[in-house]
Amino acid sequence: MGEIIMKNLFANRVLNNDTSDLNEIFKNSANPENISFAGGFPDNRLFPDHALQAAYQDAINRGGQALFQYASTQGLATLRQKLAERMANHADVQVTADNIMLTQGGQQAIDLVAKLLLNHGDAMAVEGPTYMGALAAFDTYEPTYYEIPVDHDGMDIRYLRHTLKAHPEIKLIYTVPDFHNPTGTTMSLQRRKDLVALANQYDAIILEDSPYRDLRYDGTNLPAIKHFDTEGRVVFISSFSKILSPALRTGWLVADEPLIQALVNLKSATDVQSSSVTLAAIDSYLAHNDIDQHIANLNAAYQIKRDAMLNALDRYFPANVSFTRPAGGFFIWVVLPQGVDAKQLLKDVILPQAHVAYVPAACQFAHRKVTNGFRLNFTGLDPVTITTGIKRLGGILQHLNVDTTVAKVALS
Amino acid sequence: MGEIIMKNLFANRVLNNDTSDLNEIFKNSANPENISFAGGFPDNRLFPDHALQAAYQDAINRGGQALFQYASTQGLATLRQKLAERMANHADVQVTADNIMLTQGGQQAIDLVAKLLLNHGDAMAVEGPTYMGALAAFDTYEPTYYEIPVDHDGMDIRYLRHTLKAHPEIKLIYTVPDFHNPTGTTMSLQRRKDLVALANQYDAIILEDSPYRDLRYDGTNLPAIKHFDTEGRVVFISSFSKILSPALRTGWLVADEPLIQALVNLKSATDVQSSSVTLAAIDSYLAHNDIDQHIANLNAAYQIKRDAMLNALDRYFPANVSFTRPAGGFFIWVVLPQGVDAKQLLKDVILPQAHVAYVPAACQFAHRKVTNGFRLNFTGLDPVTITTGIKRLGGILQHLNVDTTVAKVALS
To answer: Where in this chain does the record put each Aminotransferase class I/classII large domain (chains A, B) (predicted)?
Structure first.
């Protein structure tokens, strides 16, 4: 068999997805000699392993053998009920357990919504930059992307309005409104309202992806976009990955009819159901532990890390490099001078000389055209390592600043 | 919002999938007044809940907080290593852990292979009848189906040869060779060899779906089709759902390059990874328990149930109704006289009068055209209930036999 022959059998959806660059970055970032700001990792030391161990025990004690049988595709009703209450208390969204489906992390929810809506070539709007994992999911349905810029108040709704006017066929608008991945910015109240009005006007669905919502270090949360939904056009997604553990692979999706039933049918065709054992364990964890206290502990720890990174950026980064100051979440976004290719810089200079990794801009834009930026994660590392890594990174960027000729040679 | 407006936004892939009939059947079959042979359920009383509880405890004790972090998409290496050894010992397939990916049950493996290969309209061959869940997964990629009949030696390879000659563009051949779902038949040795030769000749991929392989009640197993693969064209799928527990949602996929890497990339875009906690628990279960002894216990229990069903079918079914005599697996397939619509019969007569449920033929054929058959599951119920249900079902079928006029009225 020749590999060339075999690849002729692959569907078009996978032929344009060259993930080799990204795979290489994450491979390099896993090298313990490097300080990696690339992954979006929670802090290992904050996982409540003992409480979760007790929760698995309790779930299996209570469920017995019947827990190990097939169960509903939509997921454990008592857990959905708890999430319905959480949606009311933490996102100002009034829904019942019937409006909620449990998924394999937020990622599966993104994939299922794309699968439900996107024919090949269908138009959709995404923020630029946006969550690269969402692009990977969307890419497999081959949409036509329209990129909407992000500023300090989130997605630029005026730009979106112009785009919808020019392309009224846009059927899906994807946004990460709370502590946006990768910029860390949060969509303003007025923009949330305006976004729903635009979706109503242009008959579009909004996919509100909000895994970082509870991780706020300053200020107070805004209502979810779903709160302003008047026509059942908003699908809200969140996840236990960042507030409890990503290894549980449990997210949830909130939607109205006819979307929710269609999404349940699609999940059934995709993986039948999620693990009843895991869902019962999470349900038990929530019954016997105060997850809001746990989240408060996370926030106290992550605030210190964010501040350490911002302080180091202030101190070690040159004046021609700008960065965001997020009030929560996992990420800070850095903008380099025009013309700098952050991916090339990473491979040629940053990794070999500074032994630091980040996620370069290009793979976080649907059109892959913006190159002068990168994403930094601050939750996965301790404050001392954060400071050391940013200092090393700043040393290279200061050098680029002083001598652009050398930088250009390095980037060639 | 009108539901009509919203459905205009749905992708074509979901518009042709009317699952309402099937949902209704499963809803009715869940009614405790009915005896349901519809689901493909293992016996609750055979799940090793205590051993699995200990396995979760051990996995979390060993893994500690790091277990709850993100991990590899391909899945826990030590578990993949155990499965590589199992593939050698139980399927005559020599592979390394690098050739294996862990999935959310066998269902996700089917979905990912379809996602990798199928453009809208691409040609594929499926058995007729076949596993309805596989059809649900394939349907979402909108292939052109070619149905290949199944006889007592499995897929009719002569028919496949003619089909491939007429349609050499067929790129994927899906088969359940061991205790086929829904007929229970097993593909002969010669046909396995011939199938691989045909795939080589016509540059096609074989998807070998084998979740029932270890559940044999008579005779000895044949090598997997993957054993005869000379060009890396066979993707083998199996699952812990039937031999351990479906609630673990853990299957595995065996493939060569370039397929395996492409499938890992697609899983990453679909749900990032499976649960490390679950995979570590299964790994611990396998390390501390003899799964082959557990499977031997399953087989002893399921053989009794199969025999109870075959005895009842012999006794209570009329001569114009035929059925298969599987040597393993979960299912028996029943063929009714030509012209009988098993779905209509179920809704009009069998459920209301006999309070028995089965899966009617139509939803198990890609073209939905064959109506005179149904699938019976024998693993989920006890022998007495099996006998009672088959007796009731036979009573109706005897009646159909005696007086076709009444039957036709009942079926109108």
So the answer is: 48-393
